Amino acid sequence: MRKILAAAAVSAAVAVTLTGTAQAESNQYCGSVTQIGSTAYVKNYDETVASVKQFKGCGKNFSYIYVWDSWIARTGRDFTLRTHIVTRDNNSHGYKTGARGQRELWGGPADTINDCTRAHGEVDGSSYFLFAKTSERC
Questions:
Q1: Contacts (Cβ under 8 Å, ≥6 apart) of 96
Q2: Are 134 and 40 within 8 A, CB to CB?
Q3: What would the pLDDT profile of 3-12 be if each residue is shown by its tens digit?
């Protein structure tokens, strides 16, 4: 039984490493946030570059972007992240820009909890500009 559990633990660790997915940690504005809606993926053709998510907590909405290990391994950290919440009227809330090479970024608190919103995330490199938006949540 121990061998089966150990093998399962190793398999799970390998699966997480190979997929490059991100688990968001508590943000600096609100310790308790919950993801709303599905994750969007920033793509470069068929390669996944980053994940974009929308969260709610403390009466606010938050955007979040995380660059995958596989993208950084292939291209390095010559990029800048940007993220924000977009309302249905196309206004931006909680807009943040990360430092060059920063791999994850939380948007600022957006006072849009009663609005229809989506998270927007950008990966801006010296020779590319890629972005994704989550589905709208009302």
A1: 82, 83, 84, 105, 106, 107, 108
A2: yes
A3: 443 444 434 4
- The stretches of the chain forming alpha helices (DSSP H) are 2-19, 69-75
Could you tell me which residues come within 8 angstroms of residue 93 by beta carbon, excluding any fewer than 6 positions away?
Answer: 61, 84, 85, 86, 87, 107, 108, 110, 111, 112, 117
Phi, psi (rounded to 5 degrees) for 136: -75, 140
- Give per-residue pLDDT as tens, 93-134: 999 999 999 999 999 999 999 999 999 999 999 999 999 999
User: Residue 14 has what DSSP assignment?
Assistant: H
Q: Which two tokens stand for residue 126?
A: 């010296």
Phi, psi (degrees; rounded to nearest 5) at 72: -65, -40
Q: What is the pTM of this model?
A: 0.81
Structure tokens at 127: 């020779």
